[in-house]
Amino acid sequence: MGKLMTAVVVLALLTLLVGCSREQSEEGDHVWREQVETLDRARSVEQTIGEAQERQRREIDERTR
Question: CA-based, 20 to 30 A from 2: which of 18, 23, 53, 55?
Fold first, then answer.
């Protein structure tokens, strides 16, 4: 029973080691590449909109003074 348990533990550790290895670079293709790019574009648009809102607020404040 001890040898079986040791074999199971070794197999589990090897599976984790292989599954967690970094063979692919972060820049390469991966399953969620398209989703990540879409989120990046959305963040960029959000920043642009925020900057435009801030400019608009400043202009309104200047005109009302």
Answer: 18
